[in-house]
Amino acid sequence: MKNNRLKIAIQKKGRLSEASLAFLNSLGLKFIPNGHSLIQQCENMDLDLVLLRDDDIPEYVSRGVADFAIIGQNILLEKQMRVDVIRELDFAKCRLDIAVPENSTIKTPKDLEGERIATTYPQLLKEYLAKNNINSAIIPIKGSVEITPELNLADAICDVVQTGNTLKAHNLKPLVTILESKALLITNNIQKVGKEELKELLLK
Ligand code: PRP
């Protein structure tokens, strides 16, 4: 099924969702909730809001299925997809940190040599380790990363930190920050996207 209405994708639920919708509302775009539907029509423009898992968003945008999206820099860099960044937004600020247990013998990044690091960001971790000439075993998982050291799946983690509360709750402390991240407004190809009035609104 395909229609020609422009589509803007945002995270359905999580760190980015509320602020993304508030940002679009602040531009004057109003969307009509449609029960549990994951697509909402815009009241005042020929545009649909598509609610997605944040890690699926780069795929939708790079394939041109979504014309615009709001995504965290961390997810975009991890997925390594080619999209155009229209502008940086001032929310969803967080870091991607490697963290270790409070009582760990790992005191510096070099001490990660030969250790196991659990992460939902295997690509970014791989790049960091290669750049710093550290050989560690990357354990890719999908979530609840902070629990892996206490269950002895890993010796360290590489995960998103915002307030630091989740690290503290699991007696973990940051070792090194490998990325600072914030929300980005992205598109597949700014040249190709029509609807001048929307383009103007998003670019201004
Ligand atoms: C991240 C991360 C932590 C939490 C950290 O999850 O996995 O669980 O945020 O935030 P804090 O420092 O404020 O405690 P995220 O919300 O990105 O969802 P995810 O499960 O999709 O990774």
Key words describing this protein structure:
204 residues, alpha/beta, seven-stranded mixed β-sheet, five-stranded mixed β-sheet, elongated, binds 1-O-pyrophosphono-5-O-phosphono-alpha-D-ribofuranose
Please characterize this protein's 3D structure:
By secondary structure, the protein is an alpha/beta fold. It has helices at 17-26, 57-62, 73-79, 122-131, 165-169, 196-203; strands spanning 6-11, 31-32, 39-42, 47-52, 68-72, 84-88, 94-101, 116-119, 137-140, 156-161, 172-181, 183-187. The protein is elongated. Bound molecules: 1-O-pyrophosphono-5-O-phosphono-alpha-D-ribofuranose. The site of 1-O-pyrophosphono-5-O-phosphono-alpha-D-ribofuranose has 13 residues, from strand 10 and helix 5.
Helix percentage range: 10-25%
Biggest sheet, strands in spatial order? 2-3-4-1-5-12-6
Anisotropy-based shape:
elongated
Structural class: alpha/beta
Average pLDDT value?
93
Number of helical regions: 6
Radius of gyration: 19 Å
Strand count, sense and closure of the main sheet? 7 strands, mixed
* Through-space gap between termini: 32 Å
Q: How many strand units?
A: 12
Low-confidence stretches: none
Q: Which ligands are bound?
A: 1-O-pyrophosphono-5-O-phosphono-alpha-D-ribofuranose
Q: Summarize the helix and strand pattern as letters.
A: EHEEEHEHEEEHEEHEEH
